[in-house]
Specification:
- The structure is a single chain.
- With about 350 residues, this protein is an alpha+beta fold.
- It folds into two domains: about 140 residues, FAD/NAD(P)-binding domain (3-Layer(bba) Sandwich); about 200 residues, D-Amino Acid Oxidase, subunit A, domain 2 (D-Amino Acid Oxidase, Chain A, domain 2, 2-Layer Sandwich), CATH 3.30.9.10.
- Helices cover about 30% and strands about 25% of the residues.
- The protein has nine helices and 21 strands.
- The strands form four sheets. Strands 5, 6, 7, 14, 15, 16, 17, 18 and 19 form a nine-stranded mixed beta sheet that branches. Strands 9-2-1-13-21-20 form a six-stranded mixed beta sheet, covered by helices on one side. Strands 3-8-4 form a three-stranded antiparallel beta sheet.
- The longest helix has 22 residues.
- It binds flavin-adenine dinucleotide.
- Flavin-adenine dinucleotide binds next to helix 1, strand 2, helix 2, strand 14 and strand 19.
């Protein structure tokens, strides 16, 4: 039976690899959209703390930790990343950058109280936390930190993936396993004849159709008068020149600040719900520079080197959508990774395979 996957972002490629290693026939159709989230993500893999788009260190009623209902899924995704990297990628020609950069998470009083209660729970699942309660203690780890910051936690186990090399590895592995990628846009789905219609009006038949079209998912589903509960959320990242001294941590407050192997400091990310374009804006640059300078004052004097913008496929509850669209339709959807789609992708691919095999 032919499995047609729409989209070669991280969700589509992870799903494609899961299916092809089971001996299934798999073809991906991808419209080659520029600036997709899967190529431009920060690449943080962290099941405990929230993303920068949803945390406000200055508000006491806002928690630094991921909500409990998301933690289980995040934890399974995190563990699968480690397992697959060791098994299939490390030391092979598909190796991508997957490194440890500890997080120094800035806390407000509320977070500090919460984390103190939960520290044993968090450590019992393998994430050691050191709580720092004075500015002097924090400065020993990050001498450049603003004197406004007096509470933080250090978590040693945050992983970072280079999203560009990650997606290339997935793509090459899929192709070497005998997979095929067709560059074309799917305009329409015809469930009554099990076909998809491409932009040149040619038709492609499917046994199973798996839609991994990221923020374009609902545009595609509108051809069959259906939609899923997701929306686009634009995100911009700026990359600036290095600080005077090495930043040994991923510093996280209302933004992420992290020194990457390209030699630049990445500041991530804006979060604009329902914005669907990849324009790089001056507003985003100002917002990110202000948030970063609040954490590290020296940043206000540093020069911007690069700027990226793309759109996440987001959901209100922060959980991905992984389902068969209508019972027995053989049309499946995997989307809604929001700010965590890179972390979730292997687990999403595995879940789709299990759904198909049910
Ligand atoms: C600024 C930013 C920072 C992020 N940081 C992180 C992070 O630190 N950690 C993390 O885990 N996640 C992060 N993410 C989230 C992550 O990047 C996304 O959740 C994930 O990449 C989405 O993958 P996807 O495969 O669902 O969609 P996409 O990457 O959007 O891929 C969808 C694919 O479908 C194709 N397509 C669409 N419509 C059609 C059609 N009609 N026909 C054919 N092909 C089609 C597109 O060309 C594209 O290739 C970040 C996102 C952003 C924007």
């Amino acid at each position: 039976m032919r499995n047609v996957i729409i989209g070669s972002g991280v969700y589509g490629l992870s799903t494609a690899i899961e299916l092809i290693i089971e001996g299934m026939d798999v073809i991906i159709i991808d419209s080659n959209n520029e600036d997709i989230a899967s190529r431009n993500a920060l690449g943080r893999i962290d099941p405990i703390f929230k993303g920068s788009g949803s945390y406000m260190a200055t508000k006491d009623n806002n928690s630094a930790q991921r909500p409990k209902d998301q933690r289980q899924f995040a934890l399974k995704s995190f563990n699968l990343h480690i397992e697959y990297y060791e098994k299939y990628y490390k030391g092979t020609k598909y190796e991508y950058e997957f490194i440890n950069i500890p997080t120094l998470q800035v806390l407000n009083q509320n977070d500090l109280n919460e984390i103190k209660i939960e520290v044993d729970d968090i450590e019992s699942i393998g994430f050691k936390l050191d709580i720092l309660e004075t500015h002097e203690e924090i400065k020993e780890h990050a001498p450049m930190i603003s004197k406004e910051i007096s509470k933080a936690a250090i978590m040693q186990t945050t992983k970072f993936i280079d999203s560009e090399s990650f997606i290339e590895s997935l793509r090459n592995r899929f192709l070497d396993l005998g997979g095929k990628i067709i560059t074309n846009k799917v305009e329409k789905i015809e469930p009554e004849s099990n076909n998809v219609v491409l932009s040149d009006n040619s038709k492609y038949s499917y046994g199973n159709l798996i839609i991994c079209a990221g923020p374009w998912t609902n545009e595609l589903l509108s051809s069959i008068d259906l939609k899923v509960d997701m929306y686009p959320a634009k995100g911009e990242i700026i990359k600036i020149e290095k600080l005077n001294s090495k930043l040994n941590y991923h510093l996280h407050g209302e933004c992420s600040i992290v020194e990457r192997s390209d030699g630049l400091i990445w500041i991530a990310a804006t979060h604009n719900e329902y914005e669907f374009n990849s324009e790089k804006t001056k507003e985003a640059e100002i917002e990110l520079m202000n948030k970063a300078s609040f954490l590290i004052p020296e940043i206000s004097n540093l020069k911007k080197i690069e700027h990226t913008a793309c759109v996440r496929p987001a959901t209100k509850n922060g959980m991905p959508i992984i389902k068969e669209l209508i019972d027995s339709s053989n049309i499946y959807v995997a989307t809604g990774g929001g700010g965590w789609g890179i972390m979730q992708c292997f687990y999403v691919g595995k879940s789709i395979k299990e759904l198909i095999n049910e």
